[in-house]
């Protein structure tokens, strides 16, 4: 499945009321892809903003994710209905397993059922590193259409992308600006490239992902920044710029290590 939606926003770490305000401002800016999750506790905020916008539901691309505590076929299926209720819609455009923990095969079967019933127009996974991703692809009926992973200039997921190309899964990047870590917004290399194009570091980082055929879902609670992050479709990075940024890859996560048992214990108890 090719995802061509260019307009995105997301509601991570934002309570429902604040989320509604942010999503409303993002919609005014022109964003149409909205990323949420059961674990963000703000699906209602997204639903309210979409409804109040009075824009046709078909114009939006709503993404939500099933959390670990709802894993397993029956529980996950019930939780999908609950998410639809909170989002005030009868389908989501993309439904993901948030983390590869718990009975995620059961969760995946529930999502396949939701997909066949039209409750989800596409299904996929998030944070599935190559080992679990390849395993899942080989034992499910409907292949994951998207894998949402931490991806930015410092973590370019080259190995994952090789396998996602093989099994035809679209990469969607979370923390596309590295959440500002590693001094992202003051990075001298990105600044120098941006000056050539009269663009900011944020715009260069997001444009890089877009030209790599990666969907980015930047988050901002500020309208000016939403506009800045949106305005990346009127310039093109040269092949030299792209090559320079490809070399910034450190091939490791800034935030999480899914192979660390302490992290796994932490997240399954979240
Ligand atoms: N699947 C997963 O496990 C997972 C995990 C993490 C995130 N996500 C999704 O990915 C989305 C984005 O990731 P993220 O929020 O971690 O990281 P991000 O989008 O890379 O960075 C967001 C941070 O950058 C700031 N910011 C945004 N635009 C800026 C700009 N133009 N200039 C300066 N600062 C700017 C924001 O501050 P302000 O808000 O103050 O503007 C915020 O602190 C989340 O909202 C969530 O939907 C998914």
Question: Can you offer a commentary on this structure?
Answer:
The chain has 270 residues and is an alpha/beta fold. It has one domain (8-268): TIM Barrel, CATH 3.20.20.100. Helix content is 44%, strand content 12%. It has helices at residues 16-29, 43-53, 73-87, 104-116, 130-139, 158-167, 188-197, 201-211, 223-230, 239-246, 261-268, and strands spanning 8-10, 33-35, 61-66, 94-97, 123-126, 146-150, 170-174, 215-216. An eight-stranded parallel sheet has the order 1-2-3-4-5-6-7-8. Strand 4 (94-97), helix 4 (104-116) and strand 5 (123-126) form a beta-alpha-beta unit. It is globular and about 55 Å long. NADP nicotinamide-adenine-dinucleotide phosphate is lined by residues 10, 12, 35, 98, 126-127, 148, 174-180, 185, 202, 217-222, 225, 228-229.
The H-and-E topology, N to C, reads as EHEHEHEHEHEHEHHEHHH
**What gross morphology would you assign?**
globular
Radius of gyration: 18 Å
Question: Which ions, cofactors or small ligands are bound in this entry?
Answer: NADP nicotinamide-adenine-dinucleotide phosphate
State the end-to-end CA separation.
32 Å
Q: Helix tally?
A: 11
- Based on secondary structure, the structural category is alpha/beta
What is the spatial order of strands in the main beta sheet? 1-2-3-4-5-6-7-8
Strand content: 5-15%
Largest sheet: 8 strands, parallel
Using the 3D structure, state the CATH architecture.
Alpha-Beta Barrel
